[in-house]
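S., here's the first fold you wanted:
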Amino acid sequence: MRAVVEPADHKREPSIHIERETGKAETVLQELDRIIASRHFRSAGRSRQFLQHVVQQKLAGHVERLKERTIGTELFQRSPDYATGDDPVVRVQAGEVRRRLEQYYQEAPCKPPVCIKLPVGSYSPKFEWIAEELSAKPEPLTLSPPTVAPIQRPKRLTRSGVVILAAVLLILAAVVCIPFLDSRFAAHKATTVMEEFWSPVFKSPQPVLICLAKPVVYRPSGKLYERYSRAHPGTFQTEVERYNQPLPLDPGEKLSWSDMTAYPEYGVDLGDAYAGLSLSGLFGQLGKPRQVRIGSNYSFQDLRNSPAVVVGAFNNRWTMDLTANLHFAFVEKDGKFTIQEQTPGGRNWLQHVPNSPSENADYAIVGRILDSRTGQFIAIVAGINGTGTQAAAEFVSQPEYMEKLLHNLPSDWQKKNMEVVLKTTITDSIAGPPQVVAAYFW
């Protein structure tokens, strides 16, 4: 049965507005049913409701209702005068639906007659008709009866002609054989430690997921900016100012909880962002398709379907969960973040500040789990702080750092799980080269 989402203030059944006579509306609804029944949407209630709502409104010809405030009011029960700048529920959900649609069509086993897309910057869905594109056939060719030419005796090649022909044949042989020989050589030549480290990601046809954390972030509400602006005319008049300038409140000023608003679009750590860029560039060089996922945009089910790199430590619940029972684990102890060796009398590493106020150190874990409880290859690239995460990403993406680990590797390390603890010295908030301080294989 098709689930139908109707706006509360419109009780009548909406009439299908577009192309009723050709049955295209029914084809769109059939594709909508397939989409919301897929694994990408069936466990995401809000995404299903959003997609059903905008598609049905588009089919009914109610394009004027596909505006942010109207959708927020009709679908998410917001008040008609709610501040869209303070409550980005519609924008966030539209982005989530776009992401899930992209994944759905990437994994679709065959092309459907119509693709439902949600263009960036719009809440009005677009229907792309595949059948129409394929139905355009070229005009048939009309062949004239062949003209029979009189048989002529072939001319004898001159000496220069023989030389030219031989040269052409040699060039053709080189073009055909050299790539074959190169491939045979490439297949037998030794790979680097970095290439062997990442070789498990190529056993899956799925793209590797680069999973970044996104903790909860709060921002001053629009009302708080307006209150400050009334007391200080000419300040914070535009969103650009609010995005790029801190709000200079008196430290003693009292605020209520309503003065702060949770913003789901913000919150990626700077070190995690650098790590994501480094890893994405690495997989591009290795020729492995990749997808970057942020915050709640990936689930345990996603980790079961694809190899993944989990970035960040204490701000990433999946890192904390996956490393909880490993030899080296991230542990919060007495209010301090540490890396703990989980054996009797095991070592621990925590961020410390030596005598120099401009220098400190950070630590990180690089993990390589061949068959995690997700059933897929998992790599962990995570520091106690963002600088440690950045150093860990440099370690796994730059061959010169990983080659230094070579003398500590067991002979059959490629078939083993591994964890490496790294140290990086921080000078003026910049991470130095990563150094291996401990390693464990099993």
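And the second, which I think is the more interesting of the pair:
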Amino acid sequence: MSDQRAHRVAGAGRSAGADWVVLTSYDAVAYGAGHVAGIEAGPTPFSGGPTLAVVAADGSVAVLCNQLERPAAESGWAERVESYESLGYDDLTPLEDKHEAAARRLFTELGVGGTVAVQEATFTDQLARALPESARLVPVDRELEGARAVKTPEEIEALRRCADITAIGHAAALAASRPGITELDAFAEIRCAMENAAGERLPLTGDYLSGVARTAGIMGWPGTRELQDGDPVICDLAPRVAGYWGDSCNTFVLGEPTESFERLWEVSQRALEHAVATLRPGLTAGEFDAQVRGVVTEAGLSNPLHIGHGIGTGVHEWPRLVPGHPGRLEEDMVLMVEPGAYDPGVGGVRLEWMLRVTADGCEVLSPFAHTLRPAMAGG
């Protein structure tokens, strides 16, 4: 029943010198165990500690979660699910004590011990107490980054689905963004279109910015500002669909762009086209960043943001496409590439696609075209 992703986690543990791996972040548990926990409302109040996955050296997986998450955990590939009462009222034991007891029970029954690889940022003291006193903890974060960077065929299909949903969102953005509507109202129409397409509520992050000052500020949630004729709009959409994240960005203008803004857009588009033409395995992330960023800087424009990042069960994954990053790009990595150009007096532009690294180049997974002038703008 174990999945290729679980075996990659086990391999990361071996690289760290460990006999076992304990995953404790939402994205890592989704990756290693196929357990997609709800995250839209933030950390659940019904858990006494992190939902976790234990991965053995042979790739077998067990999950510990609160009882409300049990059905989701059982729909993954864990061979065992241990849960504890979280919403009942018969047992008033504090949730953190229930969590620690369940973890101790699971670790004991599995025989977890020796050298245990953990995620340093999310592995808690109470989990350490649940392990045998003789257990030795080692970090596995860097090894996991590398293991997760190259996607399995199942992951690539999941990310294609995410890219499809973002394309629906961008079509909705072009239709919803019109003079007189607020950013929040436009974003509500965009979100509704994506959720109807997915058939469920979606955790969603990203940006929706209108006007010169807002778009020049690069990032931000939608607010109460009313869109006006001539406004530039940055729409950056990152929905989480079945445990995997999409990401994408388009920038457009309501009406006719100024000559200066059109130049920002054309340079950003040229940088993205250059990225598609040059992305290939063997480059380092830093080398690729330099090639794409160079199109913007050679035009005398500024891009203070990264050029992109990996994506998967985390919305931002290794490698980051930033100057000097030594990580080497490999076939079947999936990268978000988002060159932009920003000027406080003109506005900001960011254009983003999802790209899969192939044996000799790349494949564009985002099925939408960037559009500077929506047909309905100003109407």
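Why I say that: The mean pLDDT is 96. The domain at 4-147 is CATH 3.40.350.10 (Creatine Amidinohydrolase; Chain A, domain 1).

Talk tomorrow,
H.
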